[in-house]
Write a structure and sequence with these properties.
heterotrimer, A mainly alpha (about 110), B alpha+beta (about 240), C mainly alpha (about 120), A: about 110 residues, mainly alpha, 3 helical TM bundles of succinate and fumarate reductases, 5 helices, elongated, B: about 240 residues, alpha+beta, Ubiquitin-like (UB roll), Fumarate Reductase Iron-sulfur Protein, Chain B, domain 2, 2 domains, five-stranded mixed sheet, two-stranded antiparallel ribbon, 9 helices, binds iron/sulfur cluster, binds FE2/S2 (inorganic) cluster
Amino acid sequence: MIGWRARNHPAYWAFLVHRLSGIALALFLPAHFLVLGQALRGEAALDGALRWTEVPLVKAAEVALVLLLAAHLAGGLRILALELLAWRGWQKSLAALAAGAAVAVGVTFALGVF
Amino acid sequence: MAATLQVRVWRGGAEGAFRGYEVPRRESQTVLDVVTYIQRRLDPALAYRFACRVGMCGSCAMTVNGKARWTCRTHVSKVAADGVLEIAPLANLPVIRDLVTDMREFFDKWARAKGEFVPTATRRDPPAAVRPATAARRAADAAIECIGCGVCYASCDVVAWNRDYLGPAALNRAWTLVNDVRDGALAARLAAVAGDAGCHACHTQMGCAERCPKQLVPTASIAGLKRAVGRAVLRGEI
Amino acid sequence: MSGDGMRGDAATLRAVRAQTMLWLAQRASAAVLALCVLVHLATMIYAVRGGLPAAEILGRTRGSAAWGAFYAVFVLAAALHAGIGLRAIATEWLGLRGKAREALVAAVALALAALGLRAVWAVVA
Ligand code: SF4
Ligand code: SF4
Ligand code: FES
């Protein structure tokens, strides 16, 4: 197994962020769908479920999720570009761009909810 | 520059331990020089591998301070500014003894990736005219200088996580042949490098490209294979 | 040799073709999701200003065929994408291979698709 000294480079971090954010999003999706599914029992039921989003901890988790979604999107665009375009040499700027875009969206969302 | 280097070298097989040595620091010293000094002066039982000492044969790769490197062309000044060296065998390969790994699986995978040129002409035919400026030849040239050192293979997590994975070097080799207009085994080769054990297992981690001492970018070759295989499958060619 | 894709016969060819199709499906769904996620993020950043009342969400979605179609495509692409993504993770981090892995992947993708479409129905119908 290769160690962390060897893994410490931008593309590896990009991979790890992409994988972990993907896992987190896959775990979150069922909960998200179940909350919205409450609308089957009427507007009041959905409101009841959504009231949870007022709890500060849940709110923080939500911002984290949006950040993860943005990160996964940015990382995914990076992979699509690296795999589908014939490229050389600009992969590091792509990783940086991906991180930048993710943070920007997260911050915008955080400003909106708090 | 410190007068001596503190060197920890892996001794034993898969089960083993680091042993410490003090080696005099020299001008223009390479990591291979350090290992050779230890074997010649301090510990003749130390097993390691090298041949050309000029970066051509690909036999001297080891893990130096946690990263896979060709040791004959790695200067101590580049990797051990503080005078401390940790030298271990390459990762992802079985250790035979000390710094020597068993590279059979690495080369067997070249064969499995059909890394062998399949000629379409005989010696009675005139030599093929291959224009250097064509896109295919440029793609092949960009990947051709591999010395088979295994550094990329030892720097890829997918190799460790998926033991069937052909790995960056074998796939990079296949890509050079896919772009060789004289080769006659395109479909078979694309089928050999497709799927879970082949190019589509690569996650673009780029450990290979980060470490390749020849500055090749196997990731780019593998991406090329992904596209070529995808196209061939969609067209029903494999 | 162990694992899938090692035998040089028709079964191997079928397997690597299917695996290549999974890779293509993963990239195609990614492209669809990229568009959906951008729309979703924009809507969300706009929508959560001043709380998230159900009336506001439902007011936008109820009876809207356009939002319904959008979310249905979104859900199906996400289910496919998550399933294929988990397949790699099951292989590499959980050591799953063969039937066990494919069954897990299919179950996850189908469950996500079912829950997701139910949610779309809930907010649109
Ligand atoms: S691709 Fe580079 S790192 Fe890999 S075997 Fe060839 S020369 Fe060594
Ligand atoms: S780019 Fe692909 S082959 Fe190279 S180290 Fe990463 S996963 Fe391995
Ligand atoms: S000894 Fe030949 S490449 Fe290092």
